[in-house]
Protein: N-(5'-phosphoribosyl)anthranilate isomerase
Organism: uncultured delta proteobacterium Rifle_16ft_4_minimus_184
Amino acid sequence: MFRIKICGVTRPEDAAYAVGCGAEAIGINFFRGSPRFVPAAAAREIVRSVADRADVVGVFVNEPPEAIVALCGRLGIRRVQLHGDEPPGDASRIPLWRMKAVHARETADLPSLLAYPCDAFLLDAGGKETYGGTGRALAWETLAERFPGVAGREGSGSTGRPWVLAGGLTPENVERAIIAARPFGVDVASGVESSPGRKDKAKVKSFIEHAKSGFRIAKT
């Protein structure tokens, strides 16, 4: 399971640079409504650029399970992020590692959430109409109270599943966010960009350095 994920990657060179700086995962967005959407042919080149050096996570929004499985099979992607309103039954039909995004500005149905068939949770500040990449920040200190069983517990809730913090993270605040919320991992897209889908090398490098520092401090 990754600690640092650079999401919304649209170019092989950005993926390779992020991994070279220490990112353990990169995210490729297959949601056509996103400015970071990547077609299959371009995604294949991104996957090749990181080879086996990092996890590649395919990001999907309300896509049919069969389509997700078929595309990931063609591209060699073994991890998916479900960032829409996918019902549990659909998630169960995807025989891959699954991370479910929770739109943290909404009131969660905790019993249903905790029963969701996934391997990890991502707490995202964006509302459902945006499906991530908004750059909105969360109230990090309150996550364990608002999402008992999901957040807290040094990166895993009472279910034992890891959770990833997203939303409004930048090189300037990621260290503080990790220390305050104590997630298992962090996810960033717009916070390290010069424009949607174009990663800024200096921001990527700084984000990863500060995230690593935050994880070191959070463990002390």
About this structure: Residues 4-219 form a domain with the TIM Barrel fold (CATH 3.20.20.70). The mean pLDDT is 91.
